[in-house]
Amino acid sequence: MKRLIWALISIVLVSCGDSHVDNATAVVSLHSELGGDATGYERACAPRQFSFPQDHQAHPEFRNEWWYVTGNLSSRDAVKLGFHATFFRIATQPYEETISNSAWETSQFYMAHFAVTRQGDNQLYADERFARAAVGLAGAELKDGLADVWLEDWKFTQTVAGSRPQWHLQLDADNGAAIDLTLTARKPRVLQGVDGYSRKSADPCNASYYYAYTRLHAEGEISTANDAYSVSGSAWLDREWSSSALAENQVGWDWFALQFDDGREVMFYQLRETDGSASEFSSAVEINQKGERQVIPAPQLVIDRWWESDSGASYPVEGRLIRADSNEIIKFSPLIDNQELNLTVRYWEGAIELFNEAGTAIGHGYLELTGY
Amino acid sequence: MFVGLTLGVAVVFSVDIANQSAKRAFALSLDSITGRTTHQIVGGVSGIDEGIYTQLRTRLGVRQSAPVVEGTLTVQGPDGSESLQLLGIDIFSEPMFRSQLSSLQDVGEPGDATRESLALLEFGAVFTGNSTAARLGLSIGDTVKVKAGGATRAVKLANVIDTTHQAAFDSMVMTDIATAQWLLDMSGRLSRIDLITDNPAQLEEIKNTFSEVSIADASRRNNALVQMTGAFHTNLLAMSLLALLVGAFLIYNTVTLSVLQRRMLFGQLRVAGVDRQALASAIVIEVLAFTLLGLVAGLLAGYALGGVLLNLVTRTINDLYFTLEVRQLNVSVFNVLKITVMAVLAALVAVAVPAMEAANSPPVTLTQRSALESKTGRLLPWLATGGCALGVLGFLMLWLSASLLMAFCALFMIVIGYSLLIPGSLYWAARLTGKMSFSGAGVTGNYPMRSLSASLSRVAVAVTALAVAVSATAGVGIMIGSFRASVADWLDQTLQADFYVRDSESLDNALPQEFVDAVDSLAIVTGKRLSRMFDVDAGGTPARLLALELTGDMNRGLSLIGHHTSVDEQWTQWSAPDSLFISEPLAWQLALNAGEKLSITTENGVRDFHIAGVFTDYGAGRGLIIMPMATMHLHWQDRGLSSIGVSLNAGSVDDADRFRRLVKPWPQLLVRSDGDIRELSMRIFDQTFAITHILRLLTAGVAFVGILSALLALTLERRHEFAVLRALGLTPNEMRRVLLSQTAWMGLIAGLLALPLGILMSGILVAVINRRSFGWTMQYSVSTGVLWESVALAFIAALLAAIYPAWRIGRMLPTQALRQR
Amino acid sequence: MNQTSLAPYLNIHGLEKSYPAGSGYQTVLRGVSLQVYRGERLALLGQSGSGKSTLLNLIAGIDTPDSGGITVDGVSIGLLTEKDRTLFRRRHIGFIYQSFNLIQTLTALENVQLPLQLNGADRRQAAEQSARMLDRVGLGARGDAFADQLSGGEQQRVAIARAMVHRPALVLADEHTGNLDAETGASMMGLFNEIAEETSQTVVMVTHSSAVAATANRVALITDGRIAESDLNVSDALAW
Predict the structure, then answer these.
(1) Which residues in A lie closer than 8 A to residue B56 (C-beta atoms)?
(2) Which of B110, B114, B181 faces A104 most closely, judged by CB atoms?
(3) What is the distance between the alpha carbons of residues C9 and C41, in angstroms, rounded to a whole number?
């Protein structure tokens, strides 16, 4: 997923759009940035050899990178909550040529987005931060063999290494929302695309390196503005880095990270083109109970309900995915409608609940809608 | 009528708007420098470790914090070079802090603004104000040479900021913190960290975590700055109020003249059957219409004049306090309203008496003056009583209240009170002089004096205006004279070394150690004055700390005030650990005295110091603290020197040359002889008071027009009488002499009456107002020269004003005047 | 016919004077010629606007003629500078106005002193002489009163005193009793003539009162800016 983020980052650093900017235009204007001149940066043009724990830390020779965590939680008294915490790294120059001896001089910057959703509320609690990767303000580096990702006091810290790693995720927003969670991998790491090489358009170098932990057990505390909960649930980590990914005709995407109660996960993204059709580079995979990954044909997306936000954008928040291989129908509906993040960049990123055709709950997940 | 009104309005208006513009620019620059900051984390001379900011953000989670690296640098453009303030910021920590960033977003598309501000992130990119760029001949994208700390570097002008609404940017260069550290050689250091917090627990936590820094209350820092310049503005305001007073007199005079000119006409109108009310309201309406016309002309002229004054005001502020550039006049509706109300009120008061008189008198007696004059005569005791009462009240206020504002109120009450006494004094002086022989004038016996005292109501206002204007001139003259003498003495006492060497950019920069060593090994040096200077937080207010070490035959060069202990005893105390001297302004500001304690935030935390003495200081900026170098080293790590003063073998030209040659290898160092510094200081002093000279001249100009219009009124009114005199056998020249002798007398009396008031004013200015404004004690000295000048000014102003009326009176044909009868 | 064999004290010939009026000029005098001999008291009779007052102003040198000449005691007024003309007037001419024209800001005594002071008299002497003069006109006790505190008759007496205190050789009087009632006017004329005769002053008085004219030696008649008759005796004039 997280194509969106390419847009976000570029918008922030290049055009700095806000909710008044037509997103489509903003995204289109980004293509030269993202799909275009990546001269000087490393590029993802072919599969590579991953090595851990090194690949948990930053790859500054690539233009962009993220650590993307989402999750569905429930409290002891069964209040359903969702969270979304992402650390983005953005390079403004391919080479770190320092002119001065000022520690502040850098071309690496971090942005982080954080949101908490609670069932029954009519809005989510979202916040964002920026910092440069200098003087210790932000970074993603190994410390004693463990990856430490932070932006000021927002932290995503690895606490256990190995094939079932563990992280400590701790963020708090100015609006009072906060999370303090321990995330433990229940399934091994999944390399997406072809051995972690995820191609996004016809140009083989419009691609990223992409791995994920699709099922993490989450346990800890979460707060909204006024209430605190002890929670447990499951989370999902996506790691991706790249120097160019978008094609010129791609305007947005719908990205599903689905966790079924029977232990399976499905990741599905559909890239939308300027003419409204789905790109051939849309992709879907299924991970079974053992953690084995299998590419599946892209399911058919049927939209059942649109929701219009205060900012005037309409999002397809409710609908059905019809699997082409098994004809399984997965109905999805949002935990709450208003999960729009109206930050420096506006998009919809929300917790969803999954039902079968009969309406029985079968799981939950996160849905990202951009370009609306 | 126009001239009088226009001039009166113009002077008051220009001073008002110039003052306000400077003040507003000041507030803006304060706002843009410290913004909404409530507290600042500050350190010693070299600032604070940048790691503190990281800790603040990553460990303490203090979100409302922003690092700042600032200093001065010289920007060189094709069209010139200027010394500007460099403000290095971290754009990601800024948004809520500084007004220029939020208002940057007011420019054009919101997206554009942020995009523009992000351009700062590029290393070596700087922003500056568009007017600054234009002055230096720079455009966006240019590579610009900047000089700081002796090194010249190239930066890129990434953008300019529209300073129409951002006056503060006129004198500022904004850049990323990395670029700022590079330019200022401050890697690893921050000048300060700004905080927004109202949480005492958080402040306490910060204090406990970082013992080496101090937290200053930004509002107190700002207040200290506001207070500093506030005093200056208050002094300016005083001048403008004086101008207003004189201007009001002038408008009164002018309006009266315009009504008087047409007394005959009004009489005829009454005869023709125009009723009283109609006549009175016609007069009032007409006068108001003229007043408004004069007002408009005056406002325009005042606006033009305001630009000139603004430059002077700004220059004074720059000389005294800090770089502030304002090239824009700021005029508010309130300014215009204020002046309009003043002018209309003065005009209404002025027109009331003649309009009533014209309307209520039987037509026949309209032309008779004696009725009006006897009314004036009856009014005199009341005026005098009122004047005395105001004066006494003014003195009571001075005595009872310690506030600056009250002192000004009191001063004005005294001035107005005194001016109420002037008509009475004039009347008695006229009677007294009238009794004496006036054969000097050749001809006319009792006539000139008698005629003058008979025109008292007309003349008194003009003479009062002249007297007040001249007294202001004298008062301010005496004050400045006293001040200048005090400063000169102080400089003589302070400048004990033959040469002073410092870094040319800033006293914060330490002298190179090799240079210090070179001076040490120079045999011709007979004494040294080593000093280190930096900002500290003293009792909650920012102050300059001067650490001092004197060797060899170097004299102390401080003038201690207060004599409860001997000077030697005070110096002995000073040398003891944890003792210091404070400057008089600081003592005044903190209400502290010798023998008391002063807390200073040192690198070891807050420490109490014993105040061994208070010394005279005429620096207008921050208060000054002087402690022995050894004492400073106990509490601060810094071992650098800001300046070295050396004394050489007396009078040896060779030695002086040798010393200058010694400094040559360090181009960033500045050598000044004591003479240079004295001269420079006195030049700054004189420049600072240039504006008061101009205001004095303007005030005198207003008074001059006042006399002129009074004389014109007089000659118009007395046309017939003069015609009779001509018929009786007064030659034109004798007629002129009558008028000139009357005027000379008026000028002389005004000059003489101005003296006591001038001396009184200067006394109040020196002993009360300047003390309350700046904490300066001056030696009060009245030079007879100033007094003579004042009398001469009044006399000459009056005589000059008489030239035109005298010329007219000589040319008058008696038959016409006689026939009009 | 008290004509003497001496040259006339006041010789006026061909005097013309016009004033700007509206868009053009109004001619007031159209060639006036007149001789008055030393010690004569000449009354000028004429209607309003006939140019009598203008003639007096020209004689006094307060105004200058368009053409023609005036000699007083052999001095040609027109040839003098403004200053000399003023000095001549100050020394040799006394002028009494119909509206008195006292200086309002001076006392009665000070008003009378003025001509003496102007002629450089000693201050004390001037004061004494003026006081005597005020006594003569019956206002010895009112010397300290200001002009506007005096009645019309009193003011006129001060005006007479002022015009004659320095013993001018020529006294010009313009309707000097015009503002007074008949009785006061008569007593005033008596006083006036008495003083004039004492110092054999030459008097030219403008009047339209027969009572006043009756005190003159000779009466001249002025009509349309010309002297119509210059040698009438009083009864002729009255008849005329």
Answers:
(1) none
(2) B181
(3) 12
For B552, counting Cβ atoms within 10 Å of its Cβ (0-12 exposed, 13-18 middle, 19+ buried), the class is exposed
What would the mean pLDDT of C120-137 be, rounded to a whole number?
86
What is the distance in angstroms between the Cα of A88 and the nearest Cα belonging to chain B? 15
Longest dimension (CA), chain B: 103
Closest Cβ–Cβ partner in B451, B724, B729 for C101: B724
Q: Is the pTM of this model over 0.80?
A: no
User: Which of B370, B437, B718, B815 has the highest number of chain C CBs within 10 A, making it the mutation to test binding with C?
Assistant: B815
Residue type, B652: S
For C11-58, give the DSSP string: EEEEEEEEEEETTEEEEEEEEEEEEE-TT-EEEEEE-TTSSHHHHHHH
d(CA B368, CA B377): 15
Residue B718 structure tokens? 């007395």
Per-residue pLDDT, B770: 72
**What span, in angstroms and rounded, lies between the C-alpha atoms of A257 and A126?**
20
- State the DSSP code for A174: T
Nearest alpha-carbon partner for B780 in B794, B752, B761: B761
**B389, B342, B323, B8: which is closest to B171 by C-alpha?**
B323
Sign of the C-alpha dihedral computed for residues B85, B90, B93 and B99 taken in this order: positive
Residues of B with CB under 8 A from a CB of C: 368-370, 437, 439, 443-447, 450-451, 453-454, 720-721, 724-733, 813-815, 818, 821
pLDDT digits (tens, 9 = 90+) for B643-661: 888 888 766 677 888 888 8
Amino acid letter, residue B648: L
**Which residues on chain C are in Cβ contact (under 8 Å) with B814?**
62
> A-chain residues within 8 Å CB-CB of B182?
99-102, 105
- Residue B768 main-chain phi, psi, to 5 deg: -115, -60
Residue B469 makes CB contacts below 8 A (sequence gap 6+) with B242, B246, B699, B700, B702, B703, B754
Give the 3-state secondary structure of residue B113.
Answer: helix
Is residue B574's pLDDT more than 70? yes
Q: Do C63 and B815 touch (CB under 8 A)?
A: yes
Query: Which domains does chain A possess?
Result: 2-369 (2.40.370.10)
**Torsion angle in degrees (nearest 10) through CA of B86, B92, B98, B101:** 90
Running DSSP on this structure, what letter comes out for residue A36? I
Neighbours of chain B (3+ CB pairs under 8 A): A, C
Peptide bond preceding A94 in cis form (omega within 30 of 0): no
User: What is residue C207's three-state secondary structure?
Assistant: strand
E-strand spans in chain C?
A: 10-21, 24-36, 41-46, 67-72, 75-76, 93-96, 170-174, 202-207, 218-223, 226-232
Beta strands in B328-451, from DSSP E residues, in sequence order: none
- Check C114 against B451: CB less than 8 A apart: no
Give the pLDDT confidence of A174-185 residue by residue, as tens digits. Answer: 888 999 999 999
Specify the 3-state DSSP secondary structure of B161: strand
Give partners of A (≥3 CB pairs < 8 A).
B
User: Please, which residues have CB within 8 angstroms of residue B189's CB and are 6 or more apart in sequence?
Assistant: B46, B47, B48, B49, B50, B69, B181
Quote the CA–CA distance of A259 and A261 in Å, as a whole number. Answer: 7
Measure the CA–CA gap between C60 and C57, rounded to whole angstroms.
Answer: 5
Is A15–B115 a contact, with Cβ atoms under 8 angstroms apart? yes
Looking at residue A22, its pLDDT comes to 36
CA distance B401 to B757: 21
Residues A241 and B614: their CA atoms lie apart, in Å, by 66
- Strands A207-223, A197-199: parallel, antiparallel or unpaired by DSSP? antiparallel
